[in-house]
Design brief:
Helix content is 65%, strand content 7%. By secondary structure, it is an alpha/beta fold.
């Protein structure tokens, strides 16, 4: 029995590893890979893993941690900022979509309770898929991106009453059903208020005391205790475990330890949540699917088209531009992971027939598979649907920018108006320089415009926008985006329009420094490297180094493109998840042993430069020398310090050891 459980765990892990790797390569959300694993290894396909109560019980904790993470990321300040979209468009979308789909389900023969469940779960969209894809497409801060986020925020809120109501309507059949619903909703509201108070006045100070112990294990255990205890409390009150997880996440999210909590809980959440989605995949019967697939395709098409139409019309009603409304509708047309949570609850309470389960479950999954493709091409689809409208919308943006820029001459153009852009603009204003700033965050643009800043909504990677901003008359262009992809697009357009204009580029580190310079940047300012340089200058000043010498040192380092400060020993520091790790330079030390290939050879003979690796230092007999000359002969026990990206460093290491 014990070996059988172990075998099942190994099968699940092996299948998940292969599926997640494949979906990553295909640029599809990993969340969908778990469904495929569940379908493949479950009792209705290969039959390697039975759908046991033990696995379902563990998967239920996956729901708790899913809701906990969503609660943790639930931002009350963002809710206030987007309150018009959240409580206007978001409320209308969930209500209207639930009513329409529920009515259709009822007309097709479902009971009132089942129709309500189907309508509510189809009203939900996928927060995980939408936010990830919008970030990849650099559209999270666009107008349709803000609209989508606002609607998703209300959907997160709507799950709370749904988790309360669904078990009750499954258990009650009398006409007085509103009495237990009202009691349960009142309980949920009271618990919600108590959790917010506890989060601010109890959990915050408690985590502060725990953090003072400087024990990662103690901190993680405390977070697990709080999240599971909240789930147990709501379950004891007759509410769902998932609701407790969500409320615990909101409470902890209001503390200053929000990001640390998120990092500590993620390993547990990812594993258990993956298990939950695997169990959902196990519910899909492949043999039944072969019979009902036309209905699945038809239902998926109807769901996405009708849902998109509802969102489009509601967005127009709330005075969104037709193009923005269309792109928002495309982005939110799919069903989401909340649908699976509500569906699993409905299945557990026997609210839906087996055939209905299969059709609805398969349609939700198919819509989520199609979502990344639709979001990736939402602009192209909107252009085709609104050829004239899109052009007029774009022309209006260009006109607004051009009307302001026509009065400017020898001005500075800012691409991006975040914190860095705003700080630079204030410096220019103090010195009397003119500027115009372009940004893709509509809320930021609106607030800055109201404050009197000269900033406009526009995509700097488009030639028409740069022309409208008066790049032909501009004296300088400054790119303040913290996004290499955006920066490269802007540099490409600037090179076509004004190859002679000086371009100042901000970057997080020196990873893309040479690439930016080759693409047309005049100067690149890497934040982390410049911070080190400034700290070093202050340090030397406090050590009584003459100011003239400090100035010369800093200028020499800058003119040498920060070669002295390139790379560092990473140690146990986690790699950043920004997709640049393969290109990021770091340092590596290699000790040469007696049988190493490099012993007795010169650096020139080893020719590490063709591997794009530099020898920054050589340590021999306790003496360290920087930048050894090419004819240096290496001997046993030499320690070589290399600079390069991880892949090239591995190749250099192999050459030094075995040739």
């Amino acid at each position: 029995m014990e070996h059988k459980i172990l075998l099942e765990v190994i099968i699940l892990l092996a299948g998940s590893v292969l599926a997640v790797a494949l979906f990553k390569r295909l640029r599809l959300p990993p969340i969908l890979s778990y469904f495929i694993v569940g379908i493949a290894v479950g009792p209705n396909a290969l039959g390697w893993i039975p759908s046991t109560e033990d696995i379902k019980f563990l998967a239920e904790f996956g729901i708790v941690f899913l809701m906990f993470t969503i609660g943790l990321e639930f931002s009350i300040p963002k809710l206030k900022l987007l309150k018009g979209i959240v409580f206007g468009l978001g409320f209308s979308q969930v209500t209207v979509t639930t009513v329409i789909f529920g009515f259709i389900g009822y007309a097709l023969g479902l009971s009132a309770a089942s129709a309500f469940v189907v309508g509510s779960l189809l009203a939900m969209s996928s927060t995980a898929v939408v936010t990830k894809q919008l970030i990849e497409e650099l559209e999270l801060n666009s107008r349709h991106g803000h609209t989508a986020v606002g609607v998703l925020l209300f959907q997160d809120l709507a799950v709370i009453p749904l988790l309360v109501v669904i078990p009750i309507i499954a258990a009650e059949s009398s006409d007085a059903i509103w009495i237990p619903i009202s009691i349960s909703l009142a309980k949920a509201a009271i618990v919600f208020a108590i959790m917010l108070v506890i989060g601010r006045w109890v959990i915050g100070p408690l985590l502060h005391e725990v953090a003072k112990a400087r024990s990662a294990e103690l901190f993680t255990l405390t977070v697990l205790l709080l999240s599971l205890a909240a789930a147990m409390i709501t379950n004891t009150l007759g509410l769902s475990l998932a609701l407790g997880g969500f409320l615990a996440g909101i409470a902890l999210g209001e503390t200053t330890y929000r990001h640390q909590v998120e990092d500590d809980i993620r390993p547990f959440q990812d594993v258990l949540l993956g298990l939950f989605f695997v169990t959902i995949g196990m519910l899909i019967d492949v043999s039944t699917l072969a019979k009902i697939w036309p209905w699945v395709l038809l239902l998926t098409l109807c769901i996405m088209l009708l849902k998109a139409m509802i969102i489009f019309l509601l967005a127009l009603l709330f005075r969104s531009h037709a193009v923005v409304a269309t792109r928002s509708a495309i982005v939110l047309a799919q069903c989401g992971e909340f649908g699976f949570v509500l569906l699993s609850l409905a299945i557990d309470k026997q609210l839906l027939y087996i055939e209905t389960n299969q059709i609805v479950l398969s349609s939700i999954l198919l819509s989520m598979l199609l979502a990344p493709l639709l979001i990736r091409h939402n602009e192209k689809i909107a252009k085709k649907l609104h050829a004239v409208g899109h052009a007029s919308y774009r022309d209006q943006i260009i006109k607004d920018i051009a009307d302001e820029a026509q009065h400017l001459d020898c001005h500075i153009v800012f691409c991006g108006y975040g914190r860095v852009g705003q700080n630079l603009a204030r410096m220019l204003e103090n010195e009397g320089y003119q500027y115009i700033a372009l940004d893709l965050d509509p809320l930021r643009v609106r607030e800055a415009l109201e404050a009197g800043d000269n900033v406009y909504y526009g995509d700097c990677s488009r030639q028409q926008i740069l022309k409208a901003a008066g790049i032909a008359k501009a004296r300088l262009l400054v790119v303040t985006f913290d996004s290499p992809a955006s920066t490269f697009k802007i540099l490409e357009q600037v090179e076509k329009l004004r190859p002679d204009i000086p371009v100042l580029v901000r970057s997080r580190d020196e990873t893309h420094l040479e690439d930016f310079l080759e693409s047309g940047a005049t100067e690149v300012v890497p934040e982390t490297t410049e911070a080190s340089l400034m700290l070093g200058a202050h340090m030397l000043f406090l050590l009584d180094t003459p100011l003239s010498k400090i100035f010369k040192i800093t200028q020499d380092i800058r003119s040498d493109r920060y070669q002295l400060l390139r790379g560092f020993f990473r140690g146990m520091e986690p790699s950043p998840l920004d997709g640049n790790e393969e290109q990021r330079e770091q340092l590596l030390t290699i000790r040469l042993f007696k049988d190493a290939f490099a012993v007795g050879k010169t650096l020139a003979e080893l020719n590490l430069n063709d591997l794009e690796v530099k020898v920054t230092a050589l340590r021999r007999g306790g003496i360290k020398g920087s930048r050894p000359i090419p004819n240096t002969v290496l001997i046993e026990e030499d320690i070589i310090v290399l600079l390069g990206n991880p892949k090239n460093l591995e190749r250099a290491k192999k050459r030094l050891h075995v040739g």
